């Protein structure tokens, strides 16, 4: 009898056991994930489930009724009935006007909603790679000073996520208005309702690069333009900065979701939508039903579902409650909100697969064509990120997490010569980031003021803090400070980002999309025509409900005359009418009920998402879905060519290198820099020799190199300062200059004062050598006789 033997390492039992243990560990992790989800949901739902009555210090409606006599109540009831009827007529007349505006806007092709006049500069429909984008130049209105062609231009790119262009300049107090008031030339990237046949996202990026080249030609004496991207426009700005780094100046990203997987459990439900829909195939289906065109009204409906209490009830109740004063603001905003734009099938699939589902931007996996990919590390311009904790469409995690995904730590940001500044508002909503007049007059104004100085900031990661109040106190105006932050701070702000459930979504989405493209798409395309596609668009509830309240509906015809009569005989209520208090309490209850339903819906969706995709991940569906970017395994920072070159020249240079190095050492010790110090630093670097003779690029290169030196070898950077300043007169001049920029010494913290003392000690004149002593004197001092 012979016995068969199994070669070592080929026995299946240990392998199966190892796999089983690994699967069990993943299941245990999934159980912990579900427990965490449940705990976060309970914490988020608990405040919303509590009933809300009168605010502290206010009388409840019932108490107001109890204090009235029957006759007074009857009079109040009659007055309320008249007022409510009049407000109803005014409300529906405003809705009729909004419907008519929608109809006229659609017939006109949904032009930009800019309140500023503009001239066409470049029409993307005439470029070799045609697209429906265009560059326009904004004309300063009456009362604004003329723009200075030598000042840095501002370029604003609005989101194309269902709506049209112009939200960044649809009123005077806006991003456009802020730049125009400062005298900057302002350009706006608009787009038309209908895409060019076959256009892609890469065609748009190519067109925007052409726009920037044209601006350079129109302003040869100006610095590179500031490029501002709102929401989806932020993707465009970063793609532009990564593909054409020599064309862009500072980049400003407002509410731009560059890391779509990031967020907090129990708070940011929109990131689960793609997974619950099964991936990207529903978007492809809707585009196929649209005869190759995706209707942006579907995206707007998704946005509205995030805050149903407001979008389905509160904003209309506000119009009803303030029917005498709210109509103009409502109609102004509704003109933009009700303008729906179209995308090609390729565009919507690119967005969903690369950003919503795949989250590929931060990992450098988005194809730029010809085998290349968009790499955010290639962006060399300073970047300003504006996010808000009150934004439920782009929460801070989605706006900021890409920083932690692209860069390993803040030292790498400095070594690569990058400057990133972020600003997080406490409570403003998503649209408020772009449209709020208060935001324009504070945050956007202060960002614009800081952009003039940002290239004088040493590379690194900073948080912008705006304190004070406009026009109050002895020092009227806001105080701005850039505080040094770490990548660890970004991870803390951005919440959950690494979760195996999301890579599982990407994997399942790819499988579902392949199945749809193979079996269903050919059939759907066979039956879809342009006539049926247009019929579907017109029947979309987002459009149909606006048509229904326009003059196209005969039932709305009497409202114009009735509204005119009401305005002539208006009898508004007194503020103390108890029935008005009851109405407001009822409205609050309706909104809260809708929002409670939303919270329960979001909790169920989040639980379902983690239960389905977390379980799939536990089975190993996403094991090979997470691809580590090439940058994560790059060589050590000290081996980077620019770092090696900077360290090799650590003892080389002169007055300019020494002063910049000293200012960086002092700023590092301080942990931040206020804008008044930035202003003094900028005045030095641009107005005094030897800095004034340097080009802007040379000054930035000098700052980047000295930042690398200070960051990688701080002690040697300090010790070699005397080699840069051999002349005692230059040393004193350098110390005086740095002290003037730093400001009063008593305002410095202990660390900064200690660093200033070290700078003075290192650059102090060497002590004079003692005179030769006689041998007797030498013996008296114990020195051996030579």
UniProtKB/TrEMBL annotation:
Matches recorded under Pfam families: DUF3141 (PF11339)
Q: Which domain of life is it from?
A: Bacteria
Q: Where is this region: Disordered?
A: 766-786
- Which PANTHER family does this entry report, sorted A to Z? POLY(3-HYDROXYALKANOATE) POLYMERASE SUBUNIT PHAC
Q: What is this protein called?
A: DUF3141 domain-containing protein
Native source species: Falsiroseomonas algicola
């Amino acid at each position: 009898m012979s016995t068969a033997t199994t070669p070592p390492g080929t026995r299946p039992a240990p392998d199966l056991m190892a796999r089983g243990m690994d699967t069990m560990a993943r299941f245990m992790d999934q159980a912990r994930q579900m427990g965490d989800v449940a705990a976060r949901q309970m914490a988020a739902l608990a405040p919303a489930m509590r009933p809300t009555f009168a605010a502290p210090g206010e009388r409840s409606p019932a108490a107001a009724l109890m204090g009235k006599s029957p006759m007074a109540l009857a009079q109040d009831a009659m007055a309320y009935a008249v007022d409510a009827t009049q407000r109803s007529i005014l409300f529906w007349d405003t809705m009729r006007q909004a419907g008519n505006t929608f109809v006229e806007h659609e017939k006109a092709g949904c032009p930009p909603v800019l309140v500023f006049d503009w001239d066409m500069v470049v029409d993307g429909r005439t470029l070799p790679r045609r697209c429906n984008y265009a560059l326009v130049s904004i004309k300063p209105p009456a009362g604004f000073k003329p723009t200075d062609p030598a000042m840095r231009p501002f370029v604003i790119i609005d989101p194309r996520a269902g709506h049209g262009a112009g939200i960044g300049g649809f009123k005077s107090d806006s991003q456009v208005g802020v730049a125009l008031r400062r005298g900057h030339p302002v350009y706006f990237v608009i787009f038309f309702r209908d895409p060019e046949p076959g256009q892609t996202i890469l065609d748009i990026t190519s067109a925007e690069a052409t726009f920037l080249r044209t601006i350079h030609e129109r302003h040869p004496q100006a610095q590179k333009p500031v490029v501002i991207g709102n929401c989806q426009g932020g993707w465009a700005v970063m793609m532009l900065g990564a593909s054409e780094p020599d064309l862009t100046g500072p980049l400003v990203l407002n509410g731009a979701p560059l890391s779509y997987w990031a967020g907090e459990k129990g708070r940011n439900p929109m990131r689960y939508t793609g997974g619950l829909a099964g991936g990207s195939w529903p978007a492809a289906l809707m585009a196929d039903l649209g005869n190759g065109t995706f209707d942006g009204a579907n995206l707007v409906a998704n946005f509205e579902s995030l805050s149903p209490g407001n979008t389905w009830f509160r904003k209309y109740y506000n119009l009803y409650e303030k029917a005498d004063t709210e109509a103009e603001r409502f109609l102004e905003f509704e003109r933009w909100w009700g303008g729906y734009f179209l995308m090609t099938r390729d565009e919507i699939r690119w967005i969903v697969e690369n950003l919503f589902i795949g989250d590929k931007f931060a990992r450098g996996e988005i194809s730029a064509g010809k085998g290349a990919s968009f790499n955010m590390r290639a962006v060399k311009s300073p970047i300003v990120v504006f996010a808000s904790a009150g934004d439920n469409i782009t929460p801070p995690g989605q706006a900021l997490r890409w920083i932690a995904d692209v860069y390993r730590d803040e030292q790498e940001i400095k070594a690569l010569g990058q400057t990133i500044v972020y600003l997080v508002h406490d409570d403003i909503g998503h649209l408020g980031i772009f449209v709020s007049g208060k935001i324009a007059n504070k945050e956007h104004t202060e960002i614009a003021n800081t952009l003039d100085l940002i290239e004088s900031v040493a590379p690194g990661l900073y948080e912008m803090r705006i304190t004070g109040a406009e026009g109050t106190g002895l020092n009227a105006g806001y105080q701005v400070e850039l505080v040094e932050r770490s990548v660890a701070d970004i991870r803390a702000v951005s919440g959950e980002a690494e979760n195996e459930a999301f890579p599982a979504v990407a994997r399942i989405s790819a499988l579902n999309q392949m199945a749809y493209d193979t079996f269903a798409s050919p059939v759907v395309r066979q039956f879809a025509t342009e006539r049926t596609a247009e019929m579907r668009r017109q029947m979309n509830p987002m459009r149909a409900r606006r048509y229904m309240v326009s003059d196209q509906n005969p039932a709305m015809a009497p409202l114009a005359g009735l509204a005119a009569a009401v305005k002539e005989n208006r009898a508004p209520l007194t503020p103390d009418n108890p029935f008005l208090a009851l109405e407001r309490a009822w409205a609050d209850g309706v909104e809260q009920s809708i929002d409670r339903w939303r919270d329960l819906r979001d909790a169920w969706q989040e639980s379902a998402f983690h239960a389905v995709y977390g379980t799939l991940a536990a089975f190993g569906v996403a094991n090979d879905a997470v691809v580590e970017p090439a940058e994560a395994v790059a060589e050590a920072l000290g081996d980077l060519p620019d770092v090696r070159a900077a360290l090799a020249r650590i003892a080389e240079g002169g007055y300019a290198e020494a002063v910049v190095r000293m200012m960086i050492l002092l700023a590092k010790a301080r942990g931040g820099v206020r804008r008044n110090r930035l202003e003094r630093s900028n005045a030095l670097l641009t107005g005094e020799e030897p800095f004034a003779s340097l080009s802007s690029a040379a000054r930035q290169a000098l700052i980047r190199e000295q930042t690398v030196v200070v960051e990688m070898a701080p002690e040697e950077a300090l010790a070699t300062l005397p080699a840069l300043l051999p002349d005692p007169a230059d040393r004193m001049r350098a110390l005086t200059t740095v002290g003037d920029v730093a400001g009063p010494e008593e305002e410095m913290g202990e660390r900064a004062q200690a660093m200033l003392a070290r700078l003075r000690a290192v650059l102090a004149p060497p002590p004079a050598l003692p005179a030769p002593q006689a041998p007797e004197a030498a013996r008296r001092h114990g020195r051996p006789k030579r």
